[in-house]
Amino acid sequence: MAWSPGLENTLKAYGFQYTILESHGLLFADPVPDTGLFAPAVCPNGFPVYGRDRLACLEVSDPRAGFASADEYLDVEKDIGFELDEATLSPLFDVKLGRRITGFRYWSRARLPGEVRAFYQPDKAHARATADANTFIERRAAALAKASAFLEGAHVSQVCAFPAQLFGDDWFEGIAWLEQTFRAVALRQDIRFALPSSGVKQCLSEKKTVPCVSSWHDNGYAEDVLNSSNDWMYPFARKATERMIDLAERFPDDSGLKERALCMAAREILLAQAMDWFLLMNEKDRVEYARLRFEDAIKAFTVVYESLGSNFISTEWLTRIEKTDNLFSNINYRVFSRKK
Predict the structure, then answer these.
(1) CB of 266 within 8 A of CB of 336?
(2) What are 37-59's pLDDT values in tens digits?
(3) Do both 135 and 24 map to the same domain?
């Protein structure tokens, strides 16, 4: 949900139907859409964009006051691998070799007097998830009704988008909450869930707007992903990407070992482009890990690039790196070819 002027042309050229911006991408647009965040806006080239309702999303995900922070929910940070003594953990692993995540978590987020943590009670957590889902839907229905009245009965929508890891990872009960929101809406007549693609055609305005540069990071713009801690990474990622495009153009129909190497190069490019490494460079305790992962991806790509240039590829090395970086098993390197 980051935006920079000109993206609409690329997205439309590749057949995308719409995209989603952070709320201020539309609220600071030029001009501001008459419908605000309650309907998709239209870029000068006719490409539709939705604005995520950030405040509605924070009702769920805010780490201090959001539904996900309720006391009844499981504390996913409190794992027995870091909480119990060495003797108790000995059947699982040797603590002398380092503590680790086990997946066994028994505490809720609640704190009792004396900083003692309360045990997790699944029934209470599920009841809270149901109540929070109903509250969330009631608030959305009220907001949509108010917006529709203000816009003289126009069709309105509200976009809520979250990081996928919130559901089940950061927030153990997030999946249950999500299920309950769908169940709650299914019982109502005034609102319904819909994919953004279903509302694009019927809600488009003739008025064109230019969205504002924005992102959904905490500061709302690009400071987290481009600053003095990570700016050195971009020239490497850009150069490697240019080389990958060149490879895809030079070897459009290869097969066998060469195709394997080209697909491996494409995987490493995607790894190098992953925003995680750029963001982790802002966290002191993770800088070395992020640097290592990024550099490993660039080096592995470079090995393939130079091997194809010399027409020699080490099968042993390629097999080893395929087992290590084994994401996107069905990737086709030709996706990096220029659009004809």
Answers:
(1) yes
(2) 999 999 999 999 999 999 999 99
(3) yes
